[in-house]
Structures are given as structure tokens and as C-alpha cells.
Amino acid sequence: MQIHRVLAGAATVVAVAVSQGAAAQAPYPSKPIRVIFPFAAGGAGDIFVRAYGQKFADKFGQNWVLDNRGGAGSTIGTDLVAKAAADGYTLLQATLTFAVSAAVYSKLPYDVERDFAPITTLVNVVPILAATPSLPVSGVQELIAYAKARPGQLSFASTGPGSSPHLTGELFKRMTGIEMMHVPYKGTSQAFPDLIAGRVQLIFEPMPSMLPHVRAGRMKALGVTTAKRSNAAPEIPTIAEQGLEGFDVVTWYGMLAPAGTPKPVLETLHAAIVEFAALPDVRERLSSIGAEPATLSSAEFAAMIKRDVARWKEVAREANIKLD
Fold first, then answer.
1. Least confident residue range of 13-22, 116-125, 243-252, 262-271
2. Cα 59 to the center of its chain, rounded Å
3. Pair 262, 91: CB distance under 8 Å
4. Closest CA to 131 of 251, 221, 4, 224
């Protein structure tokens, strides 16, 4: 009887282990994936989640569920992902602000290197320096002259303190020697009405959410922040070619998972995004709004984040920006 009990107990342990192993090896993905975008709804990030998410649903039969969690310069939504289960079912669509926040906040509830597993970049985006239509300037040099004649009277909007549009504005101030007041908003859906109405005069924002307003005359494009003009709007000159040589800011959007996410899951996600980025309809859709598909390896993505943190720390230090 004792032997039978031992054997029965052993069989139970084996059965439980096999069951747990089978569960652990369940094909991924087997349920919808929540993609947290740490900004308010209505920005360019929503477009990219949907563009790639539709292809993901077609391939795997599981949706990417967009969850906009704006606030505190993107750190609220980012922290949710840092503390989420490392199972591949909660992801972060990060932007350049992910690195900028690490540069400007004295203390974050997460560590950008330790708490995340970079998967790949999704797109590189061309930001536009846009003005309210009533501002009597048509280019960067006119803006500089106008601002210098009215020190401190102009204001620029951003999607929050410590966001990449905020630091891009600070870089512009440093390189031109002008004074502008920074006006933070919770998202572009709040900033755009004030820009259009003239309550703020300027903004640095990614092209996908800006271009419809520019082409409708609700905003005035003064230049793009990248070293080269955008194929989506080649008529808009770069800031660099208008006298600010070396001014080059590219806004990237990328996908990260919580640290500890199983390598096979990360590899599945990376391979799928690379596949989707090569599809002609995806490339055409994104390029038409000023975004270019970009798929770095996880190591390349991690290295780029590290470089960006260092770059924006310098800008923040010179602008005396340090957030709690």
C-alpha cells in the first residue's frame, strides 16, 4: 500500500508538471495584447498601433488593444508596463520621449534599461515646427528675428513637461538664442485648438498628426526638424537648411515589453513587425503621412535609447530642466 501511495503521489506530481509545462508552452499569442501608449488619444501614436495592429490581427487572430495612458510626461503609462506581467500581453509603444524622460526626471519609478526589453522600432517620424496662422512669419529666420524683437512674448506648446516636443523646443531656443515660454498640455488634442486659435504660437509635433491641419490652413509649417526633407511634404524646408546647421531631431516610435519577457515571445513580436513593415500597403500608408517604417534589432534599439538619453541630458542640463 505504501508503494502504491508513493507511486500515485509521483504520478500526480508528474501530471501537474506536464500540465504546467503545456500551459507554459501554449502558442503565443493566445489572447489580445494590450498596447499602452503613454499619451492622450488623438496623436500620431494611435495611427501606428492601428497600422501594425491590423496586420497582427490578420496574421495571429488576436488584436492589439490600444490603451492611451497619458500624463506626467508619459511616465504614468510607461510605469504601468514596467510593472506589468512579463508574458508578452502588455506592451509599450514608446517614443523619443521615453529617452527624454530618463534625461530630465531626477527620479523615475522605473529604469529605462533595467525594466524593459526593447523589441524593435516601428517608424521614424518627421516632426514639424508649426505656427499659429496669425503669426506674421513664414520661415525660421523670420521667426528668429520676430522672437528676438519680442523676448519672452512667444510661447510653444508641448505634450507635457519632459516630453520630446518640450526638449526639441529647448534645443531650438539654445541654438537660436531666442526666448519662448513653454506651455505644457496633456496631449495634442488639447494643444491643437489653442495653437489654431493663437493662444499659443508654436509647436514641435510629429508630421502624421500635423499634416492635415497644415494642408487645411489651420497651422503654418515653418520647417521640419530632421536633416532631410520628408517625402510626404517635400515643400516644407528643413530647419537646418534655413540657417540652423546641425539641427536634427527624429521622433522614433518603438515597441518594448517588460523585462523578463520570454525570448521566444520577443522574437515572435520582432519577426512579425519586421514582416509587416516590409508590406507595400503599410509602407505606402505610413509614408503618406510622414512616417517611415524602421525595424532595428533589439540590440540596436537599446543602443539608440542609450545614446538619446545622453544627448537629451546635455540639452536638459543647459536649459536647467530637472523634473521630480
1. 13-22
2. 24
3. no
4. 221
Q: 79: pLDDT confidence band, cut at 50, 70 and 90?
A: very high
Q: What is the pLDDT of residue 20?
A: 47
In degrees, to the nearest 5, what angle opens at C-alpha 283 toward C-alphas 282 and 287?
120
Flag whether pLDDT at 37 surpasses 80.
yes
Query: Which pTM was predicted?
Result: 0.84
Neighbours of 282 (CB within 10 A): 18
C-alpha distances out from residue 232 to 31, 73, 203, 249, Å: 36, 28, 19, 17
- Cα–Cα distances (Å) from 320 to 160, 162, 189, in that order, read 16, 12, 28
* CB 202 within 8 Å of CB 142: no
| Separation CA 230–CA 234 (nearest Å) | 5
Handedness of CA 125, 131, 133, 136 (dihedral sign): negative
Residue 287: HSE in the Cβ half-sphere, 13 Å Cα cutoff: 13
Cell numbers given for 150: 519680442
